[in-house]
């Protein structure tokens, strides 16, 4: 039996994402945040059992890149829980 899943990924704008890594400096931290987000999205899109990837973000550049990868992009609804709820609603 084959199952398919939707993956929901909240992605903060790089300027504020991965804030626990502030010791790296803002530029390197932002670059790492983008790399982690895009690697995660790419892995999810490439997974056989994943039918749909939904990314909740307000970052225009990340939105463009993940949309080009075939993801549905929804606006970040505020906090983590709100972003997840909005993304799950988009899947349904």
Explain the overall architecture.
It contains three helices and three strands, in the order βαβαβα. By secondary structure, the chain is of the alpha/beta class. Strands 1-2-3 form a three-stranded parallel sheet, with helices on both faces.
Descriptors:
92 residues; alpha/beta; 3-stranded parallel β-sheet; 3 strands; globular
Rg is: 13 Å
List the helices and strands in order: EHEHEH
> How do the strands of the widest beta sheet line up side by side?
1-2-3
| Overall number of strands | 3
Largest pleated sheet:
3 strands, parallel
The mean pLDDT is 88
Short description:
With 92 residues, the chain is of the alpha/beta class.
List the helices and strands and how they pair.
Layout: E1 5-10, H1 26-46, E2 50-56, H2 60-68, E3 72-74, H3 80-91
Parallel strand pairs: 1-2, 2-3
């Amino acid at each position: 039996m084959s199952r398919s899943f939707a993956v929901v990924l909240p992605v903060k704008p790089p300027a504020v994402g991965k804030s626990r890594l502030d010791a790296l400096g803002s530029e390197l931290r932002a670059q790492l945040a983008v790399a982690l987000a895009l690697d995660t999205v790419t892995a999810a899109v490439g997974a056989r059992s994943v039918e749909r990837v939904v990314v909740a973000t307000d970052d225009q550049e990340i939105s463009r890149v993940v949309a080009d990868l075939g993801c549905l992009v929804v606006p970040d609804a505020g906090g983590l829980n709100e972003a997840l709820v909005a993304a799950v609603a988009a899947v349904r």
